[in-house]
Amino acid sequence: MGAEGSSEGGNGMHNEVYRDDWGIPHLRAAGARELARAQGRNAALDRAWQIEVERHRVQGTTAAFLGAEAVEWDRFARRARLDDTARRCFERLAPATADWVRAYVDGVNAGLGEGAGGAPEFAAAGLVPGTWQPWTPLGVWLATHILFAGFPTKLWREEVARRLGDDAIELFATDGPGTSGSNGWLVTAERTATGAPIIAGDPHRFIEDPGVYQQIRLACPEFDVVGLAVPGVPGIAHFGHTGEVAWAITNAMADYQDLYRERLRRTPVGEVQALGPDGWEPAASHTETIEVAGAAAVTVEVVETGRGPVISGGPDTGEEAVSLRHPPRVTGELGFDALPALLRARTVADLDVALDRWMEPVNVVLAADTAGATLHRVAGHVPLRPHTNRLRTVPAWDAAYAWRTPHAPMVRADVHGTAVMANQRGIAAPLGVEFAPPHRADRIQELLDESARWTAKDMAAIHMDTHLASAEPLLRLLEEVAELDGPEAVRQRDRLLRWDRRMDADSTDATLYAALRAEVVHRLAAHPALAPLHGSAHSDPYPELFHPWLATVPRIAYALEGLLTGEDGPLTHADRVAVVAGAMEHVAGAEVTRPWGELHRLSPWQALSGADSDGSRPGLAGDHDCVLSTSSVPGVTDRSARGPAARYAWDLARREDSLWVVPFGASGVPGSAHHRDQLPLWVRGELVPVVTDWNLLHREEERRDVSAETSAGARVESAVFERKVDGFGTVSLVPVDPARDLDVLHAWVTEDRARFWGMGGYSREQVLETYEFLDSLTTHHAYLAYRGGVPCALFQTYEPDADPLGECYDVQPGDHGVHLLIGPTGTAGPEAGFTGALLSVLIDYIFSDPSHLRIVVEPDARNAKGIARMVRAGFELGPEIDKPEKRARLAFLTRAVAAGA
Predict the structure, then answer these.
(1) What's the CA gap between 526 and 524, in Å, rounded?
(2) What is the rounded distance in angstroms from the CA atom of residue 702 to the CA atom of residue 325?
(3) Residue 587 and residue 491: Cα distance in Å, rounded?
(4) 184 partner at 20 to 30 Å CA-CA among 276, 421, 559, 576?
């Protein structure tokens, strides 16, 4: 690697965090595992709220703090078994990859308490951070992409067939912009000013605040990579530059998810069966409860047949259900074994081999290296099965629709001068059904052909191109309109026919066209030939989560070009001309005078509604078929919820000449200087430099990583929970290792002050045996609480119905028992507020699990000080009870009381 990519080597190098002027993190560590841990910790510090929301999305527990609006997603996540699928995929990882992912998770868990302390959303939502499992990053990736391939479109086609007939599905199974938007292009060495390749583009997704992509640099002796990471996921998957090789992707628009119509029944003993190719067969089923903030809990039955999880319907509805079959659930593979290999790639050949392991989602990849080699290929898993599977739901009981092995081969193409990927049919055509129209790809190619000396800086002009080629069919019909009612309609028609077809922010002609297009969409939706489709989103049998795919007006808007040009179908040419004429007359009377940018404003998604400000809704240029694909939904809204989630230009001559930008900023913390500092540049189409010289970066003042310190022979990096308490410090909960922690355990539990613990006369061997037995249980757990790296308390939890205590009171669903022993504090005793601060952390930890509804404690009835402390913390006293070892006083703390404390 060149000097700009070098870093200090040796096992003694500490993890280091640098920032450039835009707050972008540059992480440096002694090895890949240490670097993964540093990346996880950085994600927790910079994006705590964002990644915790994602963890809850995987688990289907977002309604517990976001309320009833999140129930539909939680229901889907549980029925689709996202968390379980992620766990399966983690178990299939190569050992080295699994260890690398674990290191990332360790970093997340180490930093999450501190990160959450600086993120105001946690307090606003009443959420405390929980614990990441080793497979959580795989779940974040799966939840982010499970709807990426658009399987609900098959439900829409079923609605079309049911309402208009089977032949009509081709009206809406044509190329359209509904799920498209990303651009990418490669310019080979002979077409650049430097004599080295350039890769540029912009992934278009729903714009989220914080952004779905994080600019980052990961450096260790093995590699030094800059790129766009997904917060919550280790490495750099989609867009990266190692110094020697760079790569980028777009959605291949492949079809690799199938929906099966299922016939389910319940047996007399309550078991669920599904009708398969060989007759009735057992289906796995169980019930889960979704907690809902401010509303009653919701029960969901999770059913899985031999095809896959049931995502719509059930055994008791009397209707056919629908199951989802997709590669990660079937194969237990997501492709994460490719991620470390991508970081270590030095050539296009290395990258190509790494991509052979990729699974989900299916992407078109462009890559180039410093030697001038290039790559243009598809990467991912597409199952082999009948073409009908790609179009519609198919019967589960017919073996003809089963998947075959092996999966479809990935395709590739040679690169000559330039290569463009913009979700068009292109090289992925054999793998899909619906692709983006060719307009963006054609326009990018047209612009690239204008020069033979491209530089990375030149790419911004392509990113921001606003020409709208898809306007042609509507304007051509407008030309055919022979008569219009009144001179104003004629004037406005002529104005549009002279329009340069650019959706510029200051253009009033663009606004007029958008208004005409919206009116055409509404008139088509009301046309007798298409009217039966209207309102299908409210009368279909599918869950509400899928209704956006089933709404008629957006579907007509996305299929508008085909509906206005197709020779076959329910609309005649005369119908189309009449619709456009009527729309023109209507719009002409509305005095459309405002510039496009006043209406076409950014509308970012945020997990916590109402958290944005007017500053996050700037006016935009572009539209869904422009290269600047800031997508509106014609007929529904002029606002843009989709757009470039990042822009990049990778220079293979000098990596430091590369450029990038994201919609908001590097930080996910509201109020941070780098939360939204890139937004004005993003709106204007400007890019910021990729800084690679460590001397030009700012060394971040080291934030003490408590979990990396050692004390009393214990390592705190295995903390399952961490919280920073103002004026007190950071508290970490570490699972007890009986052998490792024996010195601490024996010293504490045998002291006279711990007589209420009941182990005063125990030998070391007896203490070890006791905690080894406790460690073997799944219902009881023990933790050491660390403050500043020093153990300060022993904390134990248990399920009351699996403990002798359960025989002493009426156990309620959601009860969770705890024991707390404060460690030695010196002759003066604990400092003021010590126990209260510690107890607040322990309470937060218990209630970080949504299934825990009430904490139960049972202090010795003689322990007046401890009982008073519980009352001050909000516990409600219960009766005294007799246990074999003591007379105890029960006390209870509900989740609601704790949240209001």
Answers:
(1) 5
(2) 47
(3) 12
(4) 559
Burial of 284 (0-12, 13-18, 19+ CB in 10 A): middle
Cα distances (angstroms) measured from residue 580 to each of 69, 265, 565: 38, 51, 13
Q: How far apart are CA 843 and CA 848, in angstroms?
A: 9
Residue 628 to residue 644: CA distance in whole angstroms: 8
Q: Annotated catalytic, 182? A: yes
| Cα dihedral 548→551→554→560 (10° resolution) | 140
CA triple 576-579-583, angle to 5 deg: 140
Considering the candidates 180, 182, 285, 658, report the single residue annotated as catalytic.
182
Instruction: Kindly report the three-state secondary structure assignment for every residue of 304-350.
Output: ECCCCEEEECCCCCCCCEEEEECHHHHHCCCCCCHHHHHHHCCCHHH
549 vs 614: CA distance, rounded Å: 29
Give Cα 162 to chain centroid, integer Å.
34
Please state, in angstroms and rounded to a whole number, the distance separating the CA atoms of residues 666 and 675: 6
Beta carbons of 58 and 143 less than 8 angstroms apart: yes
- The tokens of 367 are what? 């890559």
At residue 709 the predicted structure's pLDDT band, cuts being 50, 70 and 90, is very low
β-strand partners of 787:
731, 790
pTM for the whole structure: 0.78
Cα–Cα–Cα angle for 721, 116, 730, rounded to 5 degrees: 50
Half-sphere exposure of 368 (CA within 13 A, CB side): 27
Burial class (CB in 10 A: 0-12, 13-18, 19+), 582: middle
User: What confidence tens digit (pLDDT) does each residue in 281-333 have?
Assistant: 999 999 999 999 999 999 999 999 999 999 999 999 889 999 999 999 999 99
Which residue shows structure tokens 């299908």? 536
- Report the distance separating Cα 472 and Cα 362, nearest Å: 31
* Nearest one of 585, 567, 557 to 470, comparing CA atoms: 557
Closest among 80, 50, 42, 77 to 61, alpha carbons compared: 77
Quote the tokens at residue 734: 């570490």
**Rounded alpha-carbon distances, angstroms, from residue 87 to 138, 283, 328, 459:** 8, 20, 11, 41
Query: Which residue spans within 448-511 are E strands per DSSP?
Result: none
CA separation for the pair 577, 837 (Å, rounded): 73
